[in-house]
Amino acid sequence: MKKTIMLIMLAAVIGGAVIYWWVHHSAGTSPGELVLYGNLDLRQVNLAFNGNERIETVLVQEGDRVEKEQVVGTLEMERLKATVAQAEARAEAQRHVVERLENGTRPEEIDQARANLNAAQADLTNTRLNYERLKKSTGGGATSQQDLDAAKAAFEVAEAKLRVNQKALDLAVIGPRKEDIAEARATLLANKADLAVSKQNLVYATLVSPTNGVVQNRILEPGEMASPQRAVLSIAITDPKWVRVYAGEPDLGKIRMGMTATVTTDSFPGKKYDGWVGFISPVASFTPKTVETADLRTSLVYEVRIFVKDPADQLRLGMPATVQIALTGGDSHNGGGATENRGG
Asked: Which DSSP category does 228 fall into?
């Protein structure tokens, strides 16, 4: 009698285990389909000004939709505009310096140098004649030695002035040195680079969205100091979206990149969303506590991302989702958006 009772209890335990396995592994699925569970995920962008100025405007609120290249904020620009004006003036002044050196000496400057040389030549002739006349009259006592020395000094000064004016004419005819022209050109390039940096800093004073999305957080307000290390806004990227699921090692061999999938959610039970396998992790990890799989919780699983098309933007970050991957049929996804499940 006791043996019969033990056999009945053993049969009941085995039957319960079979039913439990059937409910959790086979209910609602077919041999050609793999069902996985996960949550909606998407990327987030933290926008910060690339400059250190006071914020003038923040043009969007939390929940607002933004488009790519849309202006979402600005900095105070008075100082930046003044810096651009200064850089433009320096570059313009240096440009004229380069032009002057490249054009060389003007004909009028050469004529002036030649006239100075002629004047120096005439002065030298006059001082030489005066010195020679005084030198001849010195022997008879008509001229003092002091006067003779002064005439000699004037003659030597005139000779030096003649040489200086001759060199000045030579330089005027030759024109600027090549090294001076190269230096002026390099300085002009540096000034232009400073101007480009100033203009770019002015561009950085306008914050634009790099992508389409939804403003998730408005972190800084007008009047606060901005910096590249402080985000002003965080934007949730609405495209692409994906469902992050985890597949056990036995199912890993059934999944390939590009396989079509169908995504459903509890929030929209009558709607199916087209998707495809877009990422399979090459590295195994422990099963996250928020994911239920058929294996033991200590077993290793692989992250899989099912990219989903949501043209109506109904799916939200963190939303639980069920993924059904067709193990037979086409391997590549095609166009189309969410589809209505009218089969009941």
From this structure: T
Task: Return the CATH class of domain 29-42+238-340.
Answer: mainly beta
The residue ranges of DSSP E strands in the chain, in sequence order, are 33-41, 44-47, 55-58, 65-66, 71-75, 206-208, 213-218, 233-237, 241-248, 260-265, 271-286, 300-308, 320-326, 339-340
What pairing do the DSSP bridges indicate for beta strands 233-237 and 300-308? unpaired
- Domain 45-76+204-236 of CATH type 2.40.50.100: yes
The pair phi, psi for residue 104, each rounded to 5°, is 80, -170
The domain defined by 81-201 folds into: Helix Hairpins (1.10.287)
The candidate with the shortest Cα–Cα distance to 274, out of 328, 319, 335, is: 335
* Cα angle 266, 269, 272; round to 5: 110
pTM over 0.70: no
Evaluate whether 29-42+238-340 and 81-201 have a shared fold.
no
Q: Can you tell me the distance from the alpha carbon of 22 to that of 28, in angstroms, rounded to the nearest whole number?
A: 10
For the chain, give the mean pLDDT.
Answer: 80
Q: Give the three-state DSSP class for 115.
A: helix
Q: Residue 21: its pLDDT value, please?
A: 42
Q: In 175-214, which ranges are continuous DSSP H helix?
A: 178-204
Write the single-letter amino acid at 89: A
- Omega within 30 of 0 (cis) for the link into 107: no
Give me the residue spans of the domains in the chain: 29-42+238-340, 45-76+204-236, 81-201
Per-residue pLDDT at 129: 82
Structure tokens at 53: 């100025």
Give the least confident one: 34-38, 108-112, 190-194, 251-255.
108-112
337, 267 Cβ separation under 8 angstroms:
no
